[in-house]
């Protein structure tokens, strides 16, 4: 079967689909991944076909924080460029579309025009539920009725965000006029299957979700079986006690010097060594007890850490938990406060330190707590043992295998 995975966003929105794609390829399928050009090497290096999407995941924001209006403006500009890109990526053909959270609203129209089966393969629980508020929002529970109402309102906001791009895409595809809201409701009435790639340890399946929505466990970025950490990293790890990882992923653009100095001071206050991941902020600092690294597999690095300071993206949060290591979440925007809250309530992380309130003193104290209070590691290790029995990619492969042959 020819499977086209469509994923758009930052590194954490794309990298997990390389592992999923490799699993499907190993099951005998031909797999292509449509993603921003930035990730061509990431996808091709995993042995998968790459199809380029004409969107810039960096979005032009230079600060590590932004208001809701700015976030929506960036999202709108992103969506405007995405529609034609998805259509171009689908043009070579496919037998099945796997749609990420960011590509599904437009991908539904492609599936309709191409008369193809499709699944949602989401990394966030975006469908309304009474059990928690929307993953992008203030984060405070509004009660069961209020949470569901807020979730429904959030869906209407997403509909409006995609309305223009969807209208133009339908015209290009020769489809009759139909509003984005009508298309979404048709998908929901059909119990369109969505497989959620996160662990039920962090987010159990809400009891009030409709049929077709499942939580299958994480699928992880592809890492070659013979991969080894660079010698410089291995030497640093063996030269002293386990260090603390500090990285902000795709957050904090343009603030590398400030964040690097803040991180080093926080580590000094906590009496800890550190591994700083440069990320999109270009974080960096020197010193005998600090090593700056580029993109390294979390699966190989995190188990060697005393604690992990991170921006609470979905994938990084799950990777730290799967490694059985305490977290210090520093959420910045979007769904990050949601994941920070989930891992904190699990007892595997200190209280979140919002990026807007980040200081060396506050971060240093949080790191000290994470390293010295054994309860955080105990909870993280217990969660890791539960997660070890999950295989989200296998669950997706099973769902694909159950499709009737075309």
What is the fold's blueprint, element by element?
Blueprint: E1 2-6, H1 11-14, H2 16-26, E2 30-36, H3 40-44, E3 49-53, H4 68-90, E4 96-99, H5 104-114, E5 118-122, H6 143-173, H7 180-189, E6 194-196, E7 213-215, H8 231-238, E8 244-246, H9 256-270, E9 274-277, E10 290-293, H10 298-301, E11 307-310, H11 314-322, E12 327-329, H12 336-345, H13 360-372, H14 374-387, H15 392-401
Parallel strand pairs: 1-2, 1-4, 2-3, 4-5, 5-6, 6-7, 8-9, 8-11, 9-10, 11-12
Judging from the principal axes of the Cα atoms, what is the shape?
Answer: globular
Q: State the secondary-structure class.
A: alpha/beta
Q: Between the first and last Cα atoms, what is the distance in angstroms?
A: 9 Å
Approximate helicity band: 40-55%
Helical stretch count? 15
- CATH class category label of the largest domain: Alpha Beta
Number of structural units classed as domains:
2
CATH H level, superfamily name of the largest domain: Glycogen Phosphorylase B
SSE string, helices as H and strands as E: EHHEHEHEHEHHEEHEHEEHEHEHHHH
Mean pLDDT equals 93
* Cα gyration radius (Å): 21 Å
User: What's the architecture of the largest domain, going by CATH?
Assistant: 3-Layer(aba) Sandwich
CATH structural fold name of the largest domain: Rossmann fold
Q: How do the strands line up in the largest sheet?
A: 3-2-1-4-5-6-7
Count of beta strands: 12
pLDDT < 50 runs, ≥5 residues: 60-66
Instruction: Please report which band the strand proportion falls in: under 5%, 5-15%, 15-25%, 25-35%, 35-45% or over 45%.
Output: 5-15%
Sheet with most strands:
7 strands, parallel
